[in-house]
Design a protein that fits this description.
The complex is a heterodimer of chains A (about 350) and B (about 425). Chain A is built from one helix and 28 strands. By secondary structure, chain A is mainly beta. The longest helix of chain A has 11 residues. Chain B has about 425 residues and is an alpha/beta fold. The chains are: A mainly beta (about 350), B alpha/beta (about 425).
């Protein structure tokens, strides 16, 4: 199946920045959080849904990541805290001081039993998602950049089979871990995602902002931004690299200069036909790439940088967390065309292929 | 500056004013002896935060507000005073520092903002105002100094912010370092011996004096002064060589260029250079403001605290004024790229050391940092405060032709609350 149409159907504006969300399409519920430190619920079945806040002394800074385990939400934030929230009771049920620096991302093992968090203490921590017990701490990423400034650990991902874990940092270093033994098994370098300006600005920008294993667990997609001329702005190409991670062999290298900025999230289609990337500069983009060729299959944009996307179980609905808004998109897919048609399509699209250099 | 040197300078200024590039400039009145003494041995290090640092991520945090960003505030060593958690080292070193949180300078454009905060006044047709470094080089420098009066290190952002000594004349333009840590072309070529160089200088001086007797022109004197200073400047190259510092001291300042330049700045003021500007670029964080400040504040926090410690341990902080300033601050509003844009209506700076009432926080902004609610200060007021801290009367006037020009902008007042 490949995405044939993508249409924005709803937009809910707010005064804050929405960094993360969870979405349950069948219940028409969205849970989200962001720059006002709170966690909210939306009932999307209502014509004008209103924010329903969760109770409790939760985060004291930006909430940057959220996962759902049944009727429990778990969030991380810049305050270094991990918070558990009951969806049924809409209240905080547990709070743990997880990291000494700013929490950046959280994900779960496929079976939901473990949580993985990363933060600017440059540590990945493994947690029992039910009890909140700290199981292990993974130390790999350098505290400082090569230019002697604090580094940042932005991204973490678990493989669909639950056997592997990946962590990615500001300078473009990815570590792959065995999720059982928690031993590092591979490393991948994507240095183009880190721009150091040694002359004009004398600071850096960029970093690995998103990671995702392929459905067959054999590849990993790494997202960020390419080299930026003027690092005052996010004016660089959205950059995606795909590797056979066991051999650290790059298979795809894509730069999109049409829709610029950071790739904040990567989602593979279940059949590995396409890769969805979401992110942006001052505004947001949604771009579908052919996972085999890297060709752009579909692309659209919206007002407001996109921080996270939640995809419905049938891959027909997207809910987007963005700068000062939530948006909802519908997507219709179509089956792959016959080989002869595919060949002609590739030929006709060749002039539209993004510049990969 | 000792009294003898000061007198020498005044004498030289008085007798040769007509024959120098300062010809249009005369002191309206002779400074009093007390005024001379007040300025004796004073130095300034300006840490120029080029591009505009965010007051919300430094000296005036607003956590928990829509404009506050993600970073927390931390308690400082001063009761009730909190600054951004990005400045943990400075939070314990505010005893000699005054934080000013109420700058309203209105101009939020790099070029014009730089002009304003570099000169303390807006541009005016028909007159070229000198920048702060030139004024202080003029006021605090020694006419017969063997070291530069004014050194500016600006190695980033294309080195475009050189400034001008304006009506004070080229004598007060900075030694400007844009590419390297050590000034280029101040060492003798291998093909010329020191004796040869001295002989050449003597011959040039003889010819120049004959020329000056025949040509009564302002530029001649300035030209002569410049050559007179060459040998002194050439002999000062060691000041820029931080390898002469103990390893422990170099390690203390750290490996970044800003740290190394702060160490050079300390060496320069220790040797008697009255004004050193260290520009730390580039804070213009329209995108990714929080990541940018995470990096740059770490550098500022470490280097500024090390510099203040070093000056204090050497007994120099009482005579050295350390300023952090830029062309403006940054918007409370956070844009779509998680950046902050230019903002000059309510921002912050600091003054540390010489003449400053340490432990002071002056001025207030509203809950979201959008406006100044107490103690509004403009660029002229800030400059008047800086002059007062250094023992320079902010009411002093220069004569440019027949026109008296106040050293501080018309109508400006020093802020007595931050002065010791």
């Amino acid at each position: 199946m490949i995405p044939a149409t993508l249409k924005k159907t709803n937009e809910w504006k707010s005064s804050d920045i929405v960094f993360c969300l969870e979405h349950m399409a069948e219940m028409e519920r969205v849970w989200f959080a962001g720059s006002d430190f709170n966690v909210y619920q939306y009932d999307l079945s209502l014509e004008k849904p209103e924010r329903q806040p969760f109770d409790g002394e939760g985060h004291t800074s930006y909430v940057t990541g959220m996962v759902r385990q049944g009727n429990i939400l778990i969030t991380c934030g810049y305050d270094g805290q991990l918070c558990w929230w009951s969806i049924d009771e809409r209240r905080l049920t547990r709070k743990i001081a997880a990291h000494e620096r700013w929490g950046r991302a959280i994900t779960t093992s496929p079976d939901g039993s473990k949580l993985y968090t990363v933060a600017d203490d440059m540590l990945c921590k493994v947690w029992d998602s039910t009890t909140g017990e700290l199981l292990e701490t993974l130390q790999e990423h350098a505290l400082q950049t090569p230019h002697h400034y604090p580094s940042m650990l932005y991204a973490v991902a678990a493989s669909p089979d639950g056997k592997w874990l990946a962590t990615g940092d500001r300078i473009g270093h990815t570590a792959i871990w065995n999720a059982d033994s928690l031993e590092k098994v591979a490393e991948i370098e994507t240095p183009v995602m880190y721009t150091w300006d040694p002359r004009a600005r004398r600071h850096s920008i960029g970093g690995i902002r998103s990671l995702a294993f392929s459905p067959d667990n054999n590849e990993i997609a790494i997202g960020g931004i390419g080299k930026i001329g003027n690092i005052d702005h996010l004016g660089g190409p959205a950059r995606l690299e795909v590797f056979d991670w066991r051999n650290a062999t790059q298979r795809l290298e894509i730069e999109d200069n049409k829709k610029k900025g950071l790739i904040e999230q990567i989602i593979w289609s279940p059949g590995k036909e396409w890769i969805l990337t979401a992110g942006g500069d001052n505004n947001g983009f949604l771009t579908f790439y052919n996972a085999e060729t890297g060709d752009v299959l579909h692309q659209d944009g919206q007002t407001g940088h996109i921080h996270e996307v939640s995809v419905g179980p049938n891959f027909d609905e997207l809910v987007v967390a963005a700068h000062e808004r939530l948006t909802k998109w519908t997507m219709q897919s179509e089956p792959p065309k016959p080989a002869s048609d595919e060949t002609s399509k590739e030929e006709s699209n060749s002039s539209e292929k993004p510049d990969n250099n | 500056m000792n009294l003898l040197n000061r007198r020498s300078m005044l004498k030289a200024a008085g007798t040769s004013a007509a024959a120098s590039n300062m010809a249009a400039v005369e002191l309206l009145s002779q400074p009093a002896m007390a005024d001379e003494l007040a300025r004796s041995g004073k130095n300034v290090i300006l840490l120029w935060l080029a591009g505009g640092a965010s007051q919300l991520e430094t000296w005036d945090p607003k956590p928990g507000r829509p404009t506050g960003g993600p970073f927390a505030k931390i308690q400082t060593s001063l009761p009730g005073v909190e600054i951004s958690e990005l400045l943990p080292k400075m939070s314990t070193r505010l005893d000699e520092t005054a934080i000013i949180r109420s700058l309203n300078t209105k101009i939020a454009d790099h070029g014009q903002g730089y002009f304003l905060m570099d000169r303390g006044r807006r541009a005016e047709p028909g007159i070229e105002y000198p920048h702060l470094g030139a004024i202080l080089a003029h006021e605090l420098g020694q006419i017969d100094s063997k070291v530069p009066d004014y050194v500016s290190m600006y190695t980033s952002t294309e080195g475009r912010r050189q400034g001008s000594a304006g009506f004070l004349g080229a004598r007060y333009n900075p030694m400007f370092l844009t590419d390297k840590m050590i000034p280029e072309d101040i060492q003798l070529p291998e093909s010329i011996s020191d004796t040869d160089h001295r002989d050449r200088a003597a011959l040039r001086k003889t010819l120049s004096q004959r020329f000056a007797q025949r040509m009564n022109h302002a530029g001649v004197g300035s030209h002569e002064n410049a050559y007179e200073r060459v040998r002194g400047l050439m002999a000062s190259d060691y000041l820029f060589d931080i390898d002469r510092e103990p390893t422990a001291m170099r390690d203390a300042y750290g490996p970044t260029q800003f740290g190394q330049q702060c160490l050079v700045a300390r060496r320069l003021v220790e040797a008697g250079v009255p004004f050193v500007k260290v520009a730390r670029a580039w804070w213009d964080s329209h995108g990714q403001n929080f990541e940018t400040h995470r990096e740059l504040c770490a550098d500022l926090d470490h280097c500024m605290s090390t510099l203040l410690d070093d000056l204090k341990q050497r007994g120099m902080l009482e005579t050295t004024l350390v300023i952090t300033l830029g062309e403006f601050g940054r918007t409370p509003k956070i844009n779509g790229s998680l950046g902050r844009d230019h903002f000059a209506n309510a921002w912050s700076c600091t003054l540390s050391g010489c003449g400053i009432r340490g432990g002071t926080v002056f001025g207030k902004t509203d809950a979201d940092g959008q406006t100044v609610t107490e103690g509004e200060m403009n660029a002229g007021d800030l400059f008047a405060t800086i002059f007062s801290a250094l023992g320079i009367s902010p009411d002093k006037e220069y004569m440019v032709g027949s026109r008296p020009i106040p050293i501080s902008d018309f109508g400006s007042e020093p802020c007595s609350e931050v002065l010791s």
